[in-house]
Specification:
about 290 residues, globular
Length: about 290
């Protein structure tokens, strides 16, 4: 796959992922644990159904190929889902996304140490520019009561970075089973804390099915496809892309109105990430992969 197409696939994944905050706010009557349980149970089951339809008799083999490291990655992914959902449910969207801006740098450093993937100058520039952009978006916005959300976001940043490196390590394999296992792990973690008022009304079921049964499986699949052709550090620039889209949606749908700093930061994010992508695309005119 050409780098340009892989990057567009990554943008598609970021676009779908940016709806997370809106869906979580729409499920405001549910507890954090109930959201984690129902959403990721649906995600895990839908991915398993899709994999069963694709692999048929080879389904067990597809899961076994991810190996012990894949199970470790799935566990990190499952924990990141728990951290992210709880953070978004307790703090403003921008606060959470500000903390997650560290993910591309953390991932790039981990990939350099474990996979020996070099970090190009243009990637450093893009990561730093995106981080500054996210910081500008939330200057003066962090509230004293958001400490819990920031702590959960830090946990999410670390576990996502670990997961991304493992995903990149298995780029020659189909790592969608790792997403399926990770989602079911998240549901299993949340289950013991989800017993209170588990009954769901029609509106809640519709939101959960749309989010966990359709939107999330699509963007996880797109992310896996993109990870096969984009280095780990660049791959996680999906986070600042998701940030600007998430804040924009929070503005349009949730009336969380962005200020001047948010708009300036968003422009900086777009310039940093798109500039890196354009450079990398023209760096490989014949369509080589990373």
């Amino acid at each position: 796959m050409r780098y340009s197409l892989a990057f567009l696939t990554l943008v598609g994944a970021a676009t779908f992922a940016s709806f997370n905050g809106v869906f979580i706010r729409a499920l405001g009557d549910m507890t954090d644990w109930q959201i984690v349980f129902w959403r990721h149970l649906l995600v895990g089951l839908m991915l398993c159904v899709g994999l069963a339809g694709f692999y048929r008799a080879g389904l067990v083999s597809a899961f076994s190929k991810i190996g012990c490291l894949g199970i470790f990655g799935a566990t990190a992914f499952g924990l990141s889902l728990v951290f992210l959902t709880m953070a978004l449910h307790t703090s403003p969207v921008a606060d959470v996304m500000f903390t997650l801006a560290a993910i591309p740098i953390l991932t790039a450093l981990m990939a350099w140490v474990t996979l020996r993937e070099r970090i190009e100058r243009v990637t450093w520039i893009a990561m730093i520019g995106a981080a500054i952009g996210v910081a500008l978006m939330v200057v003066g916005h962090l509230a004293g009561g958001s400490i819990k959300g920031v702590g959960l976001s830090v946990g999410c940043a670390v576990t996502v970075s670990v997961f991304a490196v493992i995903l990149r390590w298995g780029r020659d394999l189909d790592m969608i089973p790792m997403f399926a296992v990770g989602s079911l792990i998240a549901a299993a973690i949340a289950l013991p804390f989800s017993y209170d008022n588990l009954s769901l009304n029609g509106e809640t079921i519709t939101i959960l099915v749309l989010w966990g049964g359709l939107i999330s499986p699509i963007y996880y699949s797109l992310f896996v496809v993109a990870s096969r052709h984009i280095r780990a550090g660049e791959l996680m620039l999906v986070v600042p892309l998701e940030t600007i889209l998430a804040v924009l949606l929070a503005w349009l749908v949730l009336a969380e109105i962005p200020g001047t700093n948010t708009l300036i930061g968003g422009i900086l994010i777009i310039v940093a990430v798109s500039g890196m992508a354009i450079y990398r695309i023209y760096e490989r005119p014949k369509g080589g992969t990373a």
